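User: Structure please.
Assistant: Input sequence and predicted structure:
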Amino acid sequence: MYERGWKRPETARVVVLLTKSEIEKIDSAGQSAGLASRSETVRQLIAKGLKAEAEAKSEAA
């Protein structure tokens, strides 16, 4: 994705289109977890999904 020599930014804006139902589920998850924003909820959900995927790959190996 990044060419050699191109420094990756520490953070980046990602635009994602979600259905109303998906947004409601994200907001509900964030409220249940006591998170301050939808952005923080999305970051945590992504982190959990990536961790679960990595664990599943290591178990399969």
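Residues 38-60 form the longest helix (23 residues).
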